[in-house]
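User: Fold this, then the next.

Assistant: Folding the first:
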Amino acid sequence: MKKSKKIISLVLAIAMVLLVPVSVVSAAPKGYGFRYAGVTVYVHGKASGLIDKMGEPNKKSKSKSCAYDGEDIKYVYDEFTLVTYTEKNGGTEYVQSIKFTSKKAKTKEGIKIGSKEKTMKKKSNLTLFMKQLIRSLKEEERFSTAHIYQSTLNAFMLFCKTDAIRFNQMERSRLKQFENHLRNKGCTWNTVSTYMRTLRSIYNKAVDDGLAEEKPRLFRHVYTGVKANTKRALDAKDMSKLLSASLPRPLPQSMKESRAWITLMFLLRGMPFVDLAHLRKTDLQDSVISYRRHKTGTLLTVEVPPTAMKLIQQYKSMDADSPYLFPILSGNRENKEEYIEYQHALRKLNYDLKQLAFYCSIKFNVSSYTARHTWATLAKYCHFSEQLICDALGHSSTKVTETYLKSFKNDELNKANKVIIKYINFSI
């Protein structure tokens, strides 16, 4: 009888365990943790009540979560930084990661002092992270950057032969293999650099967010510079031919407009095509154009020369409903549609300029970059300082300007070499 009672009790106990709601079971602490101020903090568990128990942090900041569908909250203490995320629409707050900054922090369950962040989202990977960043960029209407991110992701997934790339797969050897893969496909060094710098930026952000392990000098052995192998600047003679030379036959209207655009870009201090296309009617006041660079947001003020003003009057938009100064963009599209419209206009411009260069007997490649690079190079030939050229072009630093002037410096070095050889009267 006693035996049967014990068996019945055991069955009832098992039944009770099986009937426990899933939410109660999942609420049990999981993952790594440490103790601080008498509180056990678990990476993977709920954050509710922790902050009150641990005391007021030195610093607190909020941001839209890149890895989750909600909000990141960063709590900075003397010994560590605690990052949480809150579910969308004010949901539950969870501990996302812990980064130790002091040996005072007491650890538990395998976390070593000074170890890197441990994240709660084990399924997070490079692919998911990049896709979320791309969505965020599109929401911010940064379509050009989103396009670069997407192209980088597509190329890397193709190389890895998977659409689920884990952060721990980012190793020096794999990145070097990716570099070789791109070169073998015919990509230029600048394209390789763009992909590598994009991956580096994303990986560093993932480290900051606690999603990836910090790996010092991870990208050191792949190319992340800028090569100035392609001659983008014309000399004064060719530039003059391109802008004003009489041609044996009349140009099509489309090509006339493209010639006007590159002329204006040159006359307006090497203005990029993206900024010319987005100039608003209100940006022109009397004979002065004030605008913010599309790329950096830098405010520039340009005095319009009389020749440029004639072209503006000739080619300005006649659409009263359009906010834009020129009819490059229609003004009736928004966000992604307008970005696509701009890309179409850019491709058309580059096609027309190649045709125009052929008509003008110019042997070098001509593109939307030509006006800007030529202006900078000729300014250097006229002995203006790199700082002045940097300010005129609206560059973020003289380092950017230096990449424009690499070909100029090479010319100067070659001239110097010829002078030295001539000086010693050397001949074979």
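Now the next one, as you asked:
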Amino acid sequence: MKKNAFTLVELLAVIAILTIIMVISVPQLITSIKNKKTDALEKTKDLLISAARNYVIDYELKVPTSISIETLCKNDYLECPIKNPIDNSNLNGYVNVDDNKVYVYSDTRDYITIRDYIINLYNNEETRIRDGLKKDNTPDQNIRYYGSDPNNYVSFNNELWRIIGVFGNNVKLVRSEKLGNLSWDSSESSINSGWGVNEWSQSDLKNYLNTMYYGGTSVTCYEDINNKTTTCPTNKLDNTAKSLIDYHTWNTGAPNHNELYNSTTQSYDTVEFYKAERGNETGKICNGGDYCNDTVERTTEWTGYVALPYATDWAYASSESDCETNMFAGYDATASSFGEAIANMTCKKNNWMHYGSTLSDAFWVLSPDKSSESSIGSLVVYGIGAVSASLDGTAEPHFVIPSIYLKNNVQIISGTGTSGDPYILKADA
């Protein structure tokens, strides 16, 4: 039997028809697939916006604000990674919220400064309580973090630092971990019997923090009287961190802790102490003699990058209300022993900025001391929960906790301020 088959002409015709069909249908198919992927991307964006809405509601964030996908993932508002349907890449963008509460997904963030962000948190009662924020009772009404573990963690210099609070146009940070034990200042034996000079602008610690620690050349560090040297901590600030630091004017007024201490009520007035830190009294008046014989001019201001916290920064970090009025609260002068007298010192309790429990657990603060006409000491926060002058001038070694002010245009990228999800910062472009 004769088999039926396509002739060459018929085959060519079929091929031509199929080609025409493909020319017509393939672009339509590609367009359809592309449209489906685009639709899928829009649905993904809707999902992200929905998660961001819930996050803003739950945290009662003020607008404008910006929430990263990373933050939504870390806080279990999304199951991540979130894929881009177009190319299957991971989405790492932001949901930006404007003044009118319009939510828009973008690959870039509409940033808000960390200062404004903290103010927004404070202005909402729920987030203010949740994150541990308060206004202090000083004339400046600074917004501060307080309590045993508030949400004030920030990633800075590839380390955990913590936010002390908002001071005017700037946010102030302090390193979470202490550096080594160093002298505030030491001197050769012919100057103040080797016990150092309590003028911050020329101190050894200022020099270390703003030279070697600031990423500069090595310096000499000291740990006792008579210029006894020690190995400097090797920690340094990287260029990213330095780009965020404000060249700031720090007050270096000298509180007279003897005058500020009320023996009748056994109290330091916290507000008056704060004023003295920023006052016009300098750190030393020498009457001569070997112990106090330097001729260094004392100042009440210093401008630079890195310094130390104040004693009142520590006091206001406690959630104990007594500390707002009395930095020496809890001291019992009638106790039979020193241990009993200090056992219930109040300001060390529920205080994220407190370290240790003994006299040796002490850190330097910025202010020099002016407790007498022969004083060459500086102030120290002791682990027992008391602020006092250093015992051996400025030369005795204590822990160092670097503190800085951020530039007022530093922006927040992401984070919720917890230790597991610290705030991430960036410089304004």
